């Protein structure tokens, strides 16, 4: 694995890790159960979704109570006026995702990009058309897509178009498609369906001859009860007649102008309910499914493997993520072991479980308190300053890069080993290591925690992964206090590994900064799996960090893998220092 620094970001160049089928040449197409390029070489799509760019969902920015993008925009307009709100969204589209983002994702090892499109960037809503039944085309969306395709082509990675927000909205999960429930949905309006077909016709005609256009994911995550309106998620639908009909009409329209590109279909129930949808109606088609929060066993995808075998059609995990690194590694390995490509969700938001994190503006919580009515009304100037900082923070060069996420998605899938998260050097007789800077690697290799991922869609399983959701995305519980990260909820038997370079052999002493309000704790320090010494941690003031020293130990010159093992948990831990012991007078 090669590692390089680009504008302060640690980027992993992973091409050396992958077999020859990772990079393609020319148009993608379905070949039986595989996706291949023009030379017939199998392509395993390793993709990233650009969620939040063309379509904001409230949860991405701590705005779950608002949900849809149009409601977020209403709040912005109420704070700064319609003109400034328009300026905000214009700048959002030009700063959130740029050539730098695509270059960075390609450098990490992604060979494809999934673009969640909002139809309203390409055409007017039905109720705003000057002539009923007409289609007014907007250059903005097409120009953005042209630029994105150009950036993908320059990196020799594929772009897959995903209609995430269809005219009227295609589901009852309103934020996904920016749906206004007071207006007819996609399924309640023939005009919305005709506009959807027209949009795909326009897109296919524009990109028909583009080899780095990977395919068309024609309708994202329908969640609708056609037979039973109480089935709001569409998971119990038995026939899916309207969804199949529209999908076939879109396919026919695309094929009138584009014979070559791969068409990707999604079922009801957030992409997974294919009852009544098959067999396929086109010979260049792939079947997408989405996977979140359940166990990563073959049994959880067996239904889709059966559909692949029955209908001789490729599979693609079109959307997944929103979990811990342990879950990411498991899910990606499950897919690749079964010859399935994938696209992760998403490349940046205000959270740690993506390669890039958008930092919250300094006074962001004040703005949210204003919008929720739980805080004082901000002046237009105050609100605009916060919004401008938000725009500034969306730029890649201002994002926080999470190397641990990238490592879990690529290197850890191939190698069951650990590498340093940060460079630790014992030089000049002393060093201090933050507890949170343990090695990167899989569970039981770089660390052991009793709860490493969220399996929230599995009945009776209530795991959480990282309970603090800060600093890094591994299954270790991390909180922040006064801008200093620390580990909490340490349980018996949990451990963390640190790779350290000792420049000069000698006698050294460890000192641990911890606190515990009830039981104290105890540690064992191991060096390359051999016990060095133990440390008993005292009961302390729960708000005061206390330093506890070990007995002196011998460390030789060279690389050491230090394992800090919690014999008895129940304490919180900030850091540990290694230094030469004080000489007795």
Key traits:
single chain; eight-stranded parallel barrel; alpha/beta; globular; Jelly Rolls; six-stranded mixed β-sheet; disordered N terminus
If you had to describe this structure to a student in words, what would you say it looks like?
Belongs to the glycosyl hydrolase 5 (cellulase A) family. Keywords: Glycosidase, Hydrolase. Residues 88-348 form the Glycoside hydrolase family domain. The chain has 585 residues and is an alpha/beta fold. It folds into 2 domains: 2-53 and 96-358 and 399-408, TIM Barrel; 418-450 and 491-579, Jelly Rolls. It is 27% helix and 25% strand. It contains 14 helices and 28 strands. The strands form 7 sheets. It has an 8-stranded parallel β-barrel with strand order 5-6-7-8-9-10-11-12, surrounded by 4 helices. Strands 16, 18, 21, 23, 24 and 27 form a 6-stranded mixed beta sheet that branches. Strands 17, 22, 25, 26 and 28 form a 5-stranded antiparallel beta sheet that branches. β6 (112-118), α4 (139-154) and β7 (158-165) form a beta-alpha-beta unit. The longest helix has 18 residues, at 190-207. The protein starts with a strand and ends in a 6-residue tail after the last strand.
